[in-house]
Amino acid sequence: MKLDTRLIHAGQDPDPRTGAVNVPISMSSTFKQDGVGGFREGYEYARSDNPSRRSLEATLAAIENGSHARAFASGLAAECGILSLLGSGDEVVASSNVYGGTYRLFTQVYAKFGLRFRLAEGHTTEAILDTITPATRIIWIETPSNPLLDILDIARIAEGRPAGALLVVDNTFASPYFQNPLDLGADLVLHSTTKYLGGHSDVVGGAVIARDAQLDADLGFYQNAQGAVPSPFDCYLVQRGIKTLAVRMQRHEQNAYAVAEGLSGHPGVARVLFPGLPGHPDHALARRQMRGQSGLVSLQLKGDPQRFLSRLRLFTLGESLGGVESLVCKPDQMTHGSLPPEVRARLGITPDLVRLSVGLEDRDELLEDLRAALA
Ligand SMILES: *Cc1c(COP(=O)(O)O)cnc(C)c1O
Question: Which of 51, 96, 160, 312 is most buried, most CB within 10 Å of its CB?
Fold first, then answer.
């Protein structure tokens, strides 16, 4: 099946008992055993597995071209699952401009348990490759990056990983519609399903997708042992969102291009950061590695960002991204507020930077809103 079909059918067969075309929300926390250990379809206790989550996981595996997936209660819970594969003394290489919550999880939680984090200063493919050592066990990347939207070469980093190291790609920004890291050599794909996969800003969730059965089984152990699992209702909401991913991403992309092109050269904007623009430093790599661009556009403003934010009418000031409604945030104080100020400054996450998550509204009205706020 092609992706557009998989989004709607993979893991989502009509219910064999009732014919319901939507997978029922299965709220039972426990399952009857036919004699001790006599499980029907393998269900025993809902933390370990349940019909709503199993169905969502089958969909997630199929749309990332994986063979297995694990759903979690949030993107960060999914990250805890991945990091639990390691032990004290193991080394993780990442860029210091990973998602702020990821940075905090690395430096303030897992570092306490003896994991060692080598954070590349630059957010370039070379900087990541240069930071890898023979002791590296996980290379953790985000591309496009947040909030500067530069692109890392997934295939090159996959080739450069030492034996025994896993490449983890956080694919939240691109979504499976525009990029499939497993096809480029990644070992694990991470999603905050809170964003484009859920797509309606009404659910928090996470997922990890793999191709290797043993790796998936190891993750499944921690998923169950730590218990940070999504509720059946949340599984339903994510799966409901995934059904419309194709049409939503097409419109997010069109609207993002309209905004990026419409604001290029605007006297109130010092720089438009959008990998879809031919002037973007990573444009060629983006075109090679991705099938398109999602709705994220960052702007460096010339004027007062607070004034700009307060004058917007359609772009709502808030954390998060990837929903149907347009959002705007100020990364230095919001998404990346948990980074030390000197790290933020070195990365270029400056006070004049705003990040737009361009939604599905009428694109002329979105541009009008932005131009009015810039005036
Ligand atoms: C939001 C986000 C996360 C964290 O996911 P939660 O669902 O908020 O826990 C991780 N990575 C990226 C790129 C994100 O945008």
Answer: 96
